[in-house]
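W.,

You were right to be curious about this one. When I first looked at the sequence I had no strong expectations either way, so I just let the prediction run and decided to look at it fresh. Below is the sequence, 363 residues in total, followed by the output.
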Amino acid sequence: MKHLRLFFALMLLVGINLNVQAGETLPIRGFCIGAPQVGEVTDFVRFIDEELAPRQVNVLVLRVDYNYQYESHPELRNEVALSKEDVKQMVEVCQKHNIRLIPQINLLGHQSWHLRLEKLLEVYPEFDETPHVQLPEKYEWPNEDGLYCKSYCPLHPEVHAVVFDLVDEICEVFEADAFHAGMDEVFYIGDEKCPRCAGRDKAELFAGEVNKIQNYLDLNDRQLWIWGDRLLDGKTTGMGMWEASMNNTHRAIDLIDKNVMICDWHYERPDKTAVYFAMKGLNVVTCPWRHPENAIAQTRDMFDFRASATPEMKPRYQGMMQTVWSSAGRFLQQYYNENDTVTNSPANCFRAMFTEIETLSSN
């Protein structure tokens, strides 16, 4: 008995997963990246065809935002943006390989970046949750205004008429049955100077926006995907203000529609919060970024969660999704650069994660 206990202790120490069921793979094997720029589409389509498909990637989330030639609101296009023909090239290759293509537009938060406004608040400044906070001439963090990225006011009576036009159009051109709304790192919500939001419960405001978007998507049988950080308590967990919430939005986890897909990102530590989301009745995908060793640990965890879960919990552990936060063009340059010596990179993380998925699926 003593030797048996020692054996199991050693297995745990070296990280061997004893619960993984042979031959099982993950429902979602995803990849998330910024939509390619004009001129990068051909190379990106080739990457889908030659790199994503052979790894059995079955979900591709493209962060589009204003990088599309919107017809419903042409004033919200980037100066140079993807055409319908560009998008259809990506749709075609994804359909060829049975890859579920999901477009993203950042809703609620991430309406500015450092010294510039994103298109929505540039064109419609009346939607700004914090118009009294001016973008600085030189951006630094931290700052007196607590400015990371601006948010739109979720209670503005006209904001959803605009953003839902974009959602409809981007989902239609991508032929998508799901939409990713971002909603991560929302620092400005329920601002005390907002004439509509002041004094309101931040968790209720956040949940209200999530549910409003999901209810709208329901009209066309589409699913909402969001990042999960605002639903975690940053103080209690010690995860802080980036990968979790320090402004009391975390209680929204009990208020949001259970059909929402949670993209649970942890980049510096492989925290096991997928269990928390699943126990709350939510489907969850774990998302690494640039540390291969973390991606391997998170992949093993996801297989382990599914193997050891109750029949009710198992379907909520949906899988893994590699995230890339550089442009598609920059990622492809790094990915195909044989002389690249950087160990901790999205390209190496991507390779490590899908190698681990293949290994655990075939054991």
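Here's what jumped out at me. The two ends are 28 Å apart (CA to CA). And, maybe more interesting for your project: The first helix runs from residue 2 to 14.

Coffee later to discuss?

I.
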